[in-house]
Design brief:
two-stranded antiparallel sheet, 2 strands, 6 helices, single chain, transmembrane helix, mainly alpha, Isoprenylcysteine carboxylmethyltransferase family protein, 196 residues, elongated, Four Helix Bundle (Hemerythrin (Met), subunit A)
């Protein structure tokens, strides 16, 4: 098996693991009523589609067909090993975040019935560890898919969702939790502890 094939398989296993990890939390979240769903908009659907294109569709096409071949390059063993480790870290953080959010998790921006603000565990240092996990996934994709289009597609796709969504999400949280969320914002960073 070539290193490129191994890297593609590692990426696919990571994506499958992400999906399997999410299933029980998605079921639990669907049973929780929604108090505020005003952010289910066409804009939100477009942003989620852009993210899915970058983290799912474009890399899947490359993994299955090597298209576009002109943008491919030979990876190093160190690069692929780093990609596997970063994807493992992304999956761990993804699982921890889901576990802590429990029934309050949602794909779209919404406040659940009896929603509580989570500020402990992985939420103690950053306000959006789920986004941190997705950025780690996108970084792993760059390392695992040696293609100048498919590799960075996740950073571009998810980055677009993040930068157009995070401000609106934080505004929604301020409206829902008031001074409690404002105090939380002052003592934490968005996605990188101590930095941003």
């Amino acid at each position: 098996m070539s290193l490129v094939t191994f890297a593609k398989i590692a990426w696919a296993v990571g994506v499958a693991a992400w999906y399997v990890l999410r299933i029980p939390f998605e079921r639990k979240a669907k049973r929780q009523g929604v108090a505020d769903a005003r952010h289910r908009t066409a804009r939100e659907i477009i942003l989620l589609s852009i993210s899915t294109l970058g983290l799912g569709v474009v890399p899947a096409v490359y993994a299955a067909t090597s298209f576009p071949r002109f943008a491919s390059y030979p990876p190093s063993l160190a690069q692929v090993a780093a990609g596997v480790l970063v994807f493992a870290a992304a999956l761990w953080l993804f699982w921890r975040t889901h576990r802590q959010l429990g029934r309050y998790w949602s794909v779209t921006l919404e406040i659940k019935d009896k929603h509580q603000l989570i500020t402990t565990g992985v939420y103690e240092k950053v306000r959006h560890p789920m986004y941190s996990a997705f950025f780690l996934w996108a970084l792993a994709q760059v390392l695992l898919l040696p293609n100048l289009i498919a590799g960075p597609a996740g950073l571009i796709g998810f980055g677009t969702l993040f930068f157009f969504r995070v401000g609106r999400e934080e505004q929604m949280m301020r409206e829902a939790f008031g001074a409690q969320y404002e105090a939380y914002e002052k003592r934490t960073k968005r996605i990188i502890p101590g930095i941003y």
